[in-house]
Amino acid sequence: MARPDHSRERRAELLPIIAGTFAELGYRRTTTAELARRCSVQETTLYRLWRDKKAMFLAATDHVFEISLSIWTEQASGDATTSPAERVLAYEAEHHGELGLYRILFAGLNETDDPDIRTAVAASYRRFQHWIETRITEHRERFPSSDHPGIDPADAAWVAVGLGTIINIGRDLDLLTDRDRARLLGGIGRLLLSGGRS
User: Fold this and answer.
1) Count of domains in the chain?
2) CATH number of the domain that 78 lies in?
3) Can you tell me the distance from the alpha carbon of 121 to that of 127, in angstroms, rounded to the nearest whole number?
4) Cα 188 from Cα 100, distance rounded (Å)
5) This prediction's pTM
6) 5-58: per-residue pLDDT in tens?
7) How far is Cα 23 from Cα 9, in angstroms, rounded to an integer?
8) pLDDT of 63-90, one tens digit each?
9) Domain ranges, residue 124
10) Pair 153, 99: CB distance under 8 Å
11) What DSSP string describes 147-172?
């Protein structure tokens, strides 16, 4: 009788450790030996779950969005006086980048000569943009502010992605305090939700 395949569960168990390692060390400095050490497994165990280091990195890249989506979905549910977009924005103004997983995408930007990594990083940014665009559109439909359309939701979502990136750079380089980051994301985020009208 064949043994049950628990590879999916095992990948899910190890992926947060793998993602954290790539976030800390980047792609090039991370070795499979270091990943195995941090996961408390043999390298052969990792190779049974993923083809190679690049496959582990691609999984970590996807993990960045999945973790964000999980947090945002939880934050989006709530009272009827605010929109899901407002609740997510309030959360992100206080907590954006705390997990440090954005560094995985930053590491991927250094590897865009590899078509698989380039595709994965681009897909992550597109997924973030699409999710934000959808929430902005829902917010504006629920709380219209005028007949003037303002900033297009798709454009506003890209600006939000860019703002998040700038805030993460500010965190890593100590250019922005916690208060600065909250003020920037909260204030500009509200403008983006309203279409650029204060």
Assistant:
1) 1
2) 1.10.357.10
3) 10
4) 22
5) 0.91
6) 678 999 999 999 999 999 999 999 999 999 999 999 999 999 999 999 999 999
7) 22
8) 999 999 999 999 988 777 889 999 999 9
9) 7-194
10) no
11) SS--S-HHHHHHHHHHHHHHHHHHHH
